[in-house]
Write a sequence for this structure.
């Protein structure tokens, strides 16, 4: 995969160096960098403000004067966040992590299986099944939200982590992408596997999954983000503070009477941090995964 | 898609990945098992929350528990009641709720109260839960006719003896009555009104406004660049004025026969005044927090603000006695000053398996235990206890601005109507928004809103 | 096999054709079983958590269902009629069309522009890519708060007002007035910030699939790197990516909820300034607890989304490559 991508990069950039006098080229690059750096600063300002607000007092945040650098950094906000006995950020982080990891693996497993089945098993009605799946993408969650909640309550999963996890294990968009991906999978390889005596499961498990690393990672990261940031469903399912996710803990700083702005922003910073780490470590796979997903044609 | 990526070599190399995947899959299975275990714990009656609250309990339970203990004993066996609160913003409220629950269990050992402290959008969560058989046993909220029709509230008439009725705020009682039956016990009254900075008004040579015109003038006079004249929320006061102006003009939402009664010339004129105020360029708009948080006022961003009684402790801390209060001023010749009195009421879910035990608990907490009602109303934010005797016994409400608010509320207070639902409220707010933001004619907008409200009334009353 | 040789010919002898048919049926059965083995778990999950709720909602939309989701009183198409007849619902459709008109072209333009720039620089490419992609990790709730409270508050000293003060302009009330509707700046920039990085990645992936030889051939023909090659080579070859970005973007825009809900609210006087259909329906279902009408409105919205998707697909030929 690394071979393919590095090749792709030289391919795509080659043309810039192709022509033009050198001073022109350097000027062009300099302008380009200037623009990119300017936009980067704009893009990073909100992150900076989240951290800045998290380290200031309520009075400083709502103060009429704009403050670039707070005078004193109130790191005790962080202490308070983790030592609040009523809404523990630590419990929230643990729950969010457990939910996100389970959903990533569950979604990837179910979606890749279904995507493979639809793409490669010559079942008569597979396209009909596929279209029936796709219908669900058109329906906004708000329409099905309440019946879904009632079903989960009949399954006895309200106020449990399963109730947050299980209904979101079935991602049709991921099925769509896996199907596209497996449609393009070289048939020769599959046939070779069959000659070696592999059945459908063997081909899926031993040939396709190991070769789906990029798409698994890129989709996995996006699933992780979605799961981590999802709000309304965990809010409605989890009554007890032991089932609260990071987002729910965050929302406790925003009540009907007051807003605890420093805690809110400090919590947001803490909540975003794990995602940034996941992102930075895995983002090159996301580019490759998107490239191979078939979404771009 | 280049096929070199799928070469044999690569495939073997990625065997590692597969093993990793297997391990991960095992993790999923293990994880679900773990979750199942966790789930069992949370469903079990003795939850961690109540266990924790048990340890923090210190004081002895208040009186009036003899009957409840007997009632619970007769039903036999341990009972767990889930009790939902929306998330109060004031520090200490959650600990207080847990302590009340622990105290009750101390006096009634076979009843455990599981306090659920609900953050975020409480209404959505409560509404969803009430649709299921596993909703809360006891919950706080705001009564509507639809809740009664849908069987979401149990009648509580037997809790209200004549003595208690006499000793209960009339507005609060009416607010929880549908077709002559009482369904909710008001926990707290939350009057909303204007706060102003005394020193700033004095400097401008003004008295607290008593009419809309005076309010508009005051807002203009106090507006001085850095300090805006008035803060009524980030929507420019639209949400607050739409309803309050109806009452301030001497009209009301619905008449006694449940017909729309807000489409009058006086209201149209009041709305026109509201538009004048909203477009006077003297209102603070776009503050970091909305009107119900006193930050903007505390930060001196506006000379006057709208807020609830609950904010008074915070405002007192900032300005000591350099502030005063006044009701929503009268609008027009037929108008009168008004104070909207909100708050929360406690309900018992008729789908509960222990309706009687739940009623006993509500009775104990909100009707019998005056000390707890006082604690709840005055130890955190300020609220008025609906029990008149409790309110009278509250020292904090006896002096200064707080006493003024209590007096004004008794004089000018009005509460929500159970038949007036959110759809009707939206229709009215939308109409006033059109008047303010789109220069629509108040008369026409009031007529349009009347049609919508009537259509909604037809549907609600049809059953 | 061995036993069949010993057993004498029986009347049950099967013809070749029969054997084939049997084998085919057996194979078919195997195929069917294998297919459902793979697709079954997904199907089961969707039945429980998607199809039953959808059908439930569809049924509810023909019933009067207030404070309950048990269909009790059949009212025919009343719910649909009252939603379509409500001028506020029609306004919400207009609102979302305006929003889509802003956000879709702007997102396409910026994501493509950023992708081309990132793809053109020689050093620190991964750095820029990361920076533009990072906001994807932020939730709408948090971003909306930052935008509303810190960036675009209406105080003279808010960030945006500080910025325009440099240019000698008066402070602006960004959120809260209909004339001029500055709130669109707030709503569009927050979504742009959150999603442009993701679409940029799609374009980056597309750019990397363009063979370098095409550019070389163009240079041989005397073309200059820059606008000419972009217009004649890069953009046409990114057609499929652009279609995907347009489509994903449009569907997402039509389902917009979070930033509107968190910046303008659902019930305040601000909400009416720009109330998209989902906020309108949220009010009906969750605040008014009129689940029948809420479901009906949802399905009206669904049909609008489907129509627009189909029209756009027809115009741009989405899915053509899939059929090849």
């Amino acid at each position: 995969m690394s071979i393919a991508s590095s090749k792709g990069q030289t391919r795509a950039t080659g043309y810039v160096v192709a022509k033009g006098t050198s001073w022109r080229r350097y000027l062009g690059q300099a302008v380009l960098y200037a623009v990119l750096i300017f936009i980067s600063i704009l893009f990073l300002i909100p992150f900076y403000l989240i951290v800045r607000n998290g380290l200031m007092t309520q009075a400083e945040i709502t103060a009429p004067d704009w403050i670039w650098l707070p005078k004193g950094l109130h790191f005790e906000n962080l202490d308070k966040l983790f030592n609040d006995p009523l809404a523990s950020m630590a419990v929230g982080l643990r729950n969010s992590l457990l939910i996100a990891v389970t959903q990533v693996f569950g979604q990837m497993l179910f979606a890749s299986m279904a995507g493979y089945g639809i793409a490669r098993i010559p079942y008569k009605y597979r396209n009909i099944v596929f279209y029936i799946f796709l219908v669900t993408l058109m329906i906004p969650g708000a329409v099905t939200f309440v019946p879904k909640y009632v079903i989960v309550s009949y399954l006895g999963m309200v106020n449990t982590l399963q109730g947050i996890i299980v209904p979101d294990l079935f991602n049709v968009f991921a099925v769509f992408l896996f199907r596209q991906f497996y449609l393009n999978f070289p048939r020769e390889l599959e046939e070779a596997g069959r000659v070696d005596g592999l059945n459908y499961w063997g081909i899926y498990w031993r040939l396709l999954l190991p070769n789906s690393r990029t798409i698994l990672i890129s989709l996995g990261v996006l699933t992780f983000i979605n799961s981590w940031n999802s709000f309304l469903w965990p809010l409605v399912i989890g009554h007890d503070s032991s089932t609260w996710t990071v987002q729910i803990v965050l929302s406790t700083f925003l009540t009907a009477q007051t807003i605890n702005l420093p805690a809110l922003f400090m919590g947001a910073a803490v909540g975003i941090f794990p995602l940034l780490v996941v992102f930075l470590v895995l983002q090159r796979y996301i580019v490759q995964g998107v490239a191979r997903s078939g979404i771009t044609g | 898609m280049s096929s070199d990526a799928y070469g044999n070599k690569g495939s073997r190399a990625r065997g590692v990945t597969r093993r990793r995947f297997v391990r991960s899959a095992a993790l999923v299975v293990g994880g679900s098992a773990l979750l199942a275990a966790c789930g069992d714990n949370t469903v079990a009656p003795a939850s961690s929350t109540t266990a924790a609250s048990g340890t923090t309990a210190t004081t002895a339970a208040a009186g009036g528990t003899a009957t409840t203990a007997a009632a619970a004993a007769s039903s036999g066996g341990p009972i767990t009641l889930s009790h939902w609160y929306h998330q109060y913003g004031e520090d200490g409220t959650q600990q207080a709720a847990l302590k009340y629950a622990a105290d009750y269990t101390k006096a009634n050992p076979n009843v455990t109260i599981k306090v659920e402290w609900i953050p975020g959008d409480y209404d959505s969560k409560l509404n969803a839960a009430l649709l299921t058989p596993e909703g809360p046993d006891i919950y706080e909220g705001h009564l509507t006719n639809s809740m009664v029709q849908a069987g979401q509230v149990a009648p509580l008439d037997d809790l209200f003896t004549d003595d208690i009725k006499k000793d209960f705020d009339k507005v609060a009682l009416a607010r929880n009555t549908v077709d002559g039956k009482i369904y909710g016990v008001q926990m707290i009254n939350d009057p909303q009104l204007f706060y102003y900075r005394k020193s700033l008004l004095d400097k401008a040579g003004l008295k607290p406004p008593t009419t809309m015109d005076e309010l508009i003038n005051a807002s203009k006079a106090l507006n001085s660049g850095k300090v805006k004249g008035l803060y009524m929320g980030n929507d420019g006061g639209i949400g607050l004025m739409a309803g309050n102006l109806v009452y301030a003009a001497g009209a009301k939402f619905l008449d006694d026969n449940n017909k729309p009664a807000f489409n009058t010339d006086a209201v149209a004129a009041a709305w026109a005044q509201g538009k004048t105020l909203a477009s006077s360029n003297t209102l603070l708009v776009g503050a970091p927090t909305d009107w119900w948080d006193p930050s903007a006022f505390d930060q001196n961003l506006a000379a006057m603000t709208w807020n609830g009684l609950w904010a008074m402790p915070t405002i007192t801390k900032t300005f000591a006695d350099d502030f005063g209060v006044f009701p929503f001023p009268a609008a027009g010749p037929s108008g009168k000053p008004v104070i909207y009195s909100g708050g929360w009421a406690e309900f018992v879910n008729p789908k509960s398996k222990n309706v009687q035990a739940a009623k006993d608990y509500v009775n104990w907490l909100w009707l019998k235990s005056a000390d707890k009602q006082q604690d709840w109303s005055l130890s955190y934010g300020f609220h008025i206890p609906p029990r008149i005797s409790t309110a009278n016994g509250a020292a904090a409400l006896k002096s200064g601005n707080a006493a003024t608010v209590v007096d004004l509320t008794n004089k000018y207070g009005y509460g929500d109507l159970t038949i007036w639902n959110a759809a009707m409220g939206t229709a009215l707010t939308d109409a006033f928004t059109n008047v303010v933001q789109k220069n629509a004619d108040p008369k026409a907008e009031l007529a349009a809103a009347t049609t919508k409200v009537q259509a909604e009334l037809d549907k609600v009353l049809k059953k | 096999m061995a036993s069949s040789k010993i057993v004498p010919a029986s009347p049950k002898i099967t013809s070749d054709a029969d054997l084939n048919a049997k084998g085919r049926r057996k194979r078919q059965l195997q195929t069917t079983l294998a297919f459902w083995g793979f697709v079954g778990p997904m199907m089961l999950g969707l039945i429980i958590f998607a199809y039953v709720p959808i059908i439930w909602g569809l049924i509810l939309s023909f019933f009067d269902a207030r404070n309950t989701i048990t269909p009790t009183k059949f009212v025919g198409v009343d719910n649909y009629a009252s939603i379509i007849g409500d001028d506020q619902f029609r306004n919400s459709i207009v609102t979302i069309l305006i929003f889509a008109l802003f956000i879709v072209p702007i997102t396409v333009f910026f994501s493509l522009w950023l992708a081309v720039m990132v793809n053109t620089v020689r050093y620190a490419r991964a750095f820029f890519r990361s920076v533009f992609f990072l906001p994807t990790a932020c939730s709408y709730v948090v971003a909306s708060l930052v935008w509303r409270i810190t960036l675009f508050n209406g105080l003279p000293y808010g960030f945006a007002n500080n910025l325009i003060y440099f240019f000698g302009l008066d402070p602006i009330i960004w959120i809260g007035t209909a004339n001029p509707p500055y709130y669109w700046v707030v709503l569009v920039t927050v979504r742009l910030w959150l999603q442009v990085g993701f679409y940029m990645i799609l374009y980056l992936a597309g750019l990397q699939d363009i063979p370098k030889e095409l550019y070389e051939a163009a240079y041989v023909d005397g073309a200059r790197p820059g606008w000419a090659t972009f217009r004649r080579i890069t953009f046409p070859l990114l057609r499929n990516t652009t279609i995907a970005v347009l489509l994903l973007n449009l569907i997402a825009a039509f389902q917009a909820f979070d930033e509107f809900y968190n910046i303008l609210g659902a019930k305040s006087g601000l909400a009416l300034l720009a109330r998209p259909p989902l906020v309108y329906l949220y009010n009906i279902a969750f605040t008014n607890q009129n689940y029948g009408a809420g479901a009906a409105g949802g399905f009206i919205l669904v049909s609008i989304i489907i129509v627009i998707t189909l029209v756009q697909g027809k115009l741009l030929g989405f899915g053509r490559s899939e059929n090849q």
Observations:
- Chain C is about 70% helix and 0% strand.
